User: Fold this.
Amino acid sequence: MAYEKCIDVSEEIWKEFQDREPREISGRTGALYQEGVYQVRFLDRTLLISPVRRQGQVTGAPGAEPGFRLCLTALMYLLRVDPALLGPGISPLELPGGATFFRGHHGLPSGPLEERFGRDAAGFLAAGKKLGGETRPAGDAAVALEVFPGLVVEAILWQADDEFPAQVSFTLPARLDRFWFLDAVWGLLNLVSQELLLAAAGESS
Assistant:
């Protein structure tokens, strides 16, 4: 089965989302709830999610399907995360179990970014800026992206040279594992990588 749309997110997650008290979600995350629809900031856009219709929409793209990965990550954020308790940024490998988990199939999604931006630090920063990111003083170029309110992922690029290949690393909140399993963290990093590549190509999810 191909997981492509919001409706493909599991029945259990959608039911929990529909049953949850909107005031609890809004009070914890700052998401607005009006006429049965949540509005939550996603990078430089606003994501609208209807628990009853099990649909999502990105502002500025009427009728566009946000896609499975974005919907799942947004739902997990709204259901689980307390932004006030996330803590400072660390490497995903420093999360409990991270050094073991983020290998093989669940390897960090650095490769596509290294291939695209390995000799294009300016393009890397420009893509981050398109997504509402802030530059940071790390590596040859670094950008901090507030994916959802209070949930910041930093992507750091070291450009390729005659001796070493390009390298991209990430930081994310130190206590994110209190709210999510590591597979959800991996999904978040893949979402960030995807968005940077789309921004560089002049597209958006």
Residues 6-80 form one domain. The first strand starts at residue 32 and ends at 34.
